[in-house]
């Protein structure tokens, strides 16, 4: 049956459209199961009725004409129960409903299984047989369930393609078709979709021997030179919008084109007799397979860069005509796999949004998008890319959602959000230099999370009081080798000087998990539970010592450095780290640097650390909660995975209880505690954290004005009451609704993102 299953899935994947796919399904399943009838009923989201869409064995004239509600017939029963129903005599069942136009009175045996995709019932797949004595056995039922599960994604994609084209299942005009992905960069964009495709198809290149390798080498080197020039032009075009750290991402591309990198391996294969295009394909595919098998999110994004370079080189080798893309005034760039180079091809000022089928919030494109302030949605796994070119699109970078062919009402709704966001930030500018103090005098420090210099510039303009988290891995990630002590020192000095005399908290190198270095690959089956953070740097003290030495030297004359250790799970890791830090401190002092010993703290982001607050507090100067990772570990959810991202919730009762325990235990031990993560940048979350007793909140710069405005307008007793109310609740969604209601009643409704649009939209 496995080969039959694969054959059916392959055929359906190649279908022209939804109707063609459904007809292939009923025909092939009927033959495979040797049954008289196979039919597919799909649930129309507009009418909430099951419609007979294809059949083999019933009267064809019934297709599109027979429909029933979820409360009618055996079809409705299968859909509502969301499980198979297997009957020897369907006519004897109390839910049986007879439709004379189908001719199904001849068939007694019935087996129906639901078609479910991402918890949404799409329809029902049915087989029927004339003999009442035949009961479909367990093997046949299992086969039909397997077929249904395998085809659910294909049907969802085909259905979405039809809807995007403007037609519902009933042939009526469709609007406000929504697709859910992962938020890559915040904001709302309204514009026209422009689908960009890879310049060439490496997979289609055949292997071919050549008689003149030297001529092939010359041709290939010309292609390398042309691509290098293209990338330099793109980098120059984007330069006015980016800081040097962000521009360095394009240096990654250029370094891959060095003679001793990718071109060197291609030249070697050409020398062995392979033609240039074939050699390029072999090398690129080898690189891509190597990176994609590592399972590390950031390394997978580097595979995207390599694939993109390969396609560009191939395009020049093939000397194909480059298609001229027309970019409208408000361009929403859409691709199966967006790359940084694609962004630079859009004329300046015309790029308003980005949508990518592949990728995550940690991809190069997402990093650049946040730096440029372009709303972005990634991981749109069910989106029919080819249908979005030239269509009106709304990109909701807050919720990780896009809408195609929006109605006038939905467009107006999101335009109001755009206008309100702009007006709101203009109105909050006056708070920049004012302290964050409640009406009854409770003081909370508002800090920012940074990594790129763009973050620093934006943070200073929004009134940040310091840096609560500087991600030191950024200088490592944009290099092709470990940065030297002097290079690190320059990066760190820039951050320290920008905020002096306010404190800058620098997290030591935190690689592994969803962050990796191409020149220091970590290949693990489960990287989030593996070798990451402090575990890596303690195993490689030569990396840790150089970094700490660079930090200490960079702080000379400023003395505003704080060092924070990531991914701490036990006391021994802290003691070993402190030993190395004190050793470097005395060595740097002996070299003549006039520095003070910085405060050292740990990040609380592993559940084990939550229960060791007192022990950790006795050894460090401060604690800082990494709420994003802590939430991820507590809930066992990868928030960058679109299939389970909806389970990630910062307001989960377990998360709030853990955060409250951390704050109470830290204060009992007399240790200051802060938090850095998305929860701190949410106005409602910030109120709860303040009520718990957190001394400082660190967030993205864009969130700071809203949080400051809310905290300055409330008293601490009101916040503590709200905290007490929500701690008694057991649902994250109810907790979030309770917080939003309290903020709206207090006059802060303008700071809240609406949960849904006013129009009825079909969610795909």
Automatic annotation (TrEMBL):
Q: What class of enzyme is it?
A: transferase
For this protein, the Enzyme Commission number is 2.7.3.9
Q: Does the keyword Isomerase apply?
A: no
Q: What PROSITE patterns does the entry give?
A: PEP_ENZYMES_2
Superkingdom as given in the UniProt entry: Bacteria
Q: Name one GO cellular component term.
A: cytoplasm
Q: Does the keyword Magnesium apply?
A: yes
- What catalytic reaction does the record list? L-histidyl-[protein] + phosphoenolpyruvate = N(pros)-phospho-L-histidyl-[protein] + pyruvate
Among the record's GO biological process terms, what is one? phosphoenolpyruvate-dependent sugar phosphotransferase system
What sequence ranges are listed for the domain GAF?
Answer: 17-165
Instruction: From the record, give the transmembrane residue ranges.
Output: none
InterPro entries the UniProt entry points to: GAF, GAF-like_dom_sf, PEP-util_enz_mobile_dom, PEP-utilizing_PTS_enzyme, PEP_util_C, PEP_util_CS, Phosphohistidine_dom_sf, PTS_EI-like
Indicate the family of this protein: Belongs to the PEP-utilizing enzyme family.
Q: What is this protein identified as?
A: phosphoenolpyruvate--protein phosphotransferase
Q: Which organism is it from?
A: Marinobacter nanhaiticus D15-8W
Q: What is the lineage of its organism?
A: Bacteria, Pseudomonadati, Pseudomonadota, Gammaproteobacteria, Pseudomonadales
């Amino acid at each position: 049956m496995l080969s039959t299953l694969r054959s059916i899935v392959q055929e359906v994947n190649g279908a022209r459209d939804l109707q063609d796919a459904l007809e292939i399904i009923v025909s092939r399943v009927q033959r495979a199961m040797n049954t008289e009838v196979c039919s597919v009923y799909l649930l129309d989201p507009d009418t909430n009725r099951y419609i007979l869409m294809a059949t083999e064995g019933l009267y064809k004239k019934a297709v599109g004409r027979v429909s029933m509600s979820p409360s009618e017939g055996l079809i409705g029963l299968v859909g509502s129960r969301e499980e198979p129903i297997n009957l020897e005599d369907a006519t004897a069942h109390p839910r049986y409903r007879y439709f004379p136009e189908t001719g199904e009175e001849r068939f007694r045996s019935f087996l129906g299984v639901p078609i479910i995709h991402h918890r949404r019932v799409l329809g029902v797949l049915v087989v029927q047989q004339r003999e009442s004595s035949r009961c479909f056995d367990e093997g046949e039922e299992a086969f039909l369930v397997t077929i249904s599960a395998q085809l659910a994604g294909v049907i969802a994609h085909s259905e979405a393609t039809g809807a995007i084209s403007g037609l519902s299942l009933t042939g009526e005009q469709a609007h406000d078709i929504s697709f859910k992905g992962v938020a890559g960069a915040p904001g709302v964009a309204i514009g026209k979709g422009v689908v960009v495709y890879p310049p060439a198809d490496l997979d289609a290149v055949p292997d071919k021997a050549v008689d003149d390798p030297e001529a092939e080498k010359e041709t290939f080197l010309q292609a390398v030179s042309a691509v290098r020039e293209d990338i330099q032009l793109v980098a120059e075009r984007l330069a006015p919008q980016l800081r040097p750290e962000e521009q360095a991402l394009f240096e990654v591309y250029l370094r891959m084109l060095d003679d001793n990198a990718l071109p060197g391996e291609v030249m070697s294969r050409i020398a062995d007799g392979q033609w240039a295009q074939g050699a390029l394909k072999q090398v690129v595919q080898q690189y891509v397979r190597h990176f994609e098998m590592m399972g590390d999110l950031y390394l997978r994004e580097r595979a995207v860069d390599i694939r993109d370079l390969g396609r560009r080189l191939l395009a020049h080798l093939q000397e194909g005509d480059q298609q001229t893309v027309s970019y409208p005034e408000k361009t929403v760039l859409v691709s199966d796999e967006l790359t940084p180079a694609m962004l630079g091809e859009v004329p300046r000022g015309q790029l308003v949004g980005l949508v990518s089928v592949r990728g995550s919030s940690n991809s190069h494109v997402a990093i650049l998008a946040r730096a440029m302030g372009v709303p972005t949605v990634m991981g749109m796994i069910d989106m029919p890319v080819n249908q979005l070119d030239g269509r009106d699109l709304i990109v909701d970078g807050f919720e990780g959602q896009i809408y195609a062919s929006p109605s006038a009402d939905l467009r107006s709704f999101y335009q109001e959000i755009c206008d309100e966001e702009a007006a709101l930030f203009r109105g909050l500018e006056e708070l920049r230099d004012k302290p964050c103090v409640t009406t009854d005098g409770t003081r909370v420090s508002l800090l920012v999370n940074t990594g790129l210099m763009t973050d620093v510039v934006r943070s200073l303009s929004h009134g940040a009081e310091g840096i609560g988290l500087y991600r030191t891995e950024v200088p490592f990630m944009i290099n092709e080798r470990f940065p030297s002590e002097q290079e690190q020192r320059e990066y760190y000095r820039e951050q320290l000087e920008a905020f002096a005399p306010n404190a800058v908290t620098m997290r030591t190198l935190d690689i592994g998990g969803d962050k990796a270095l191409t020149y220091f690959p970590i290949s693990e089956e489960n990287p989030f539970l593996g070798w990451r953070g402090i575990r890596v740097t303690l195993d490689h003290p030569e990396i840790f010592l150089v970094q700490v030495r660079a930090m200490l030297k960079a702080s000379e004359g400023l003395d505003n450095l704080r060092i924070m250790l990531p991914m701490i799970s036990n006391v021994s890791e802290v003691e070993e780290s402190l030993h190395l830090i004190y050793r470097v401190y005395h060595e740097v002092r002996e070299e003549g640097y006039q520095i003070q010993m910085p405060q050292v703290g740990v990040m609380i982001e592993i559940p084990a650390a939550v229960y060791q607050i007192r022990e950790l507090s006795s050894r460090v100067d401060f604690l800082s909660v990494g709420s994003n990772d802590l939430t991820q570990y507590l809930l066992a959810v990868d928030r960058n995975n679109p299939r389970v991202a909806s389970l990630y919730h910062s307001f989960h009762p377990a998360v709030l209880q853990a955060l409250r325990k951390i704050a109470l235990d830290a204060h009992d031990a007399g240790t200051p505690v802060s938090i850095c993560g998305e929860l701190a940048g949410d106005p409602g979350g910030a109120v709860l954290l303040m009520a718990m007793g957190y001394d400082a909140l660190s967030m993205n710069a864009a969130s700071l004005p809203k949080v400051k405005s809310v905290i300055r307008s409330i008293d601490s007793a009101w916040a503590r009451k709200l905290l007490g109310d929500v701690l008694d609740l057991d649902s994250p969604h109810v907790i979030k609704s309770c917080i939003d209601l309290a903020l709206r009643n207090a006059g802060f409704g303008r700071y809240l993102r609406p949960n849904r649009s006013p129009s009825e939209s079909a969610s795909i």
